[in-house]
Amino acid sequence: MIHYIIRRLIYALPLLIGVNILTFVLFFVVNSPDDMARMQLGQKHVTAQAVDNWKKQRGYDLPLLWNDAGQGLETVTQTVFYQKSVGLFWFDFGISDSDKRNIGADIKQRMWPSLAVALPSLVLGLLVNITVALMMVLFRNSYLEFSGVVLCVILMSISSLFYIIGGQFLFGKLLRLVPISGYDGGFNAIKFVVLPVLIGVVSGIGSGARWYRTLFLEEVEKDYVRTARAKGLSETQTLFRHVVKNAMIPILTGVVVVLPLLFMGSLIMESFFSIPGLGSYTIDAISSQDFAIVRSMVFLGSVLYIFGLLLTDISYTLVDPRVRLS
Question: What band does 260 get if pLDDT is binned at 50, 70 and 90?
Answer without folding.
Answer: low
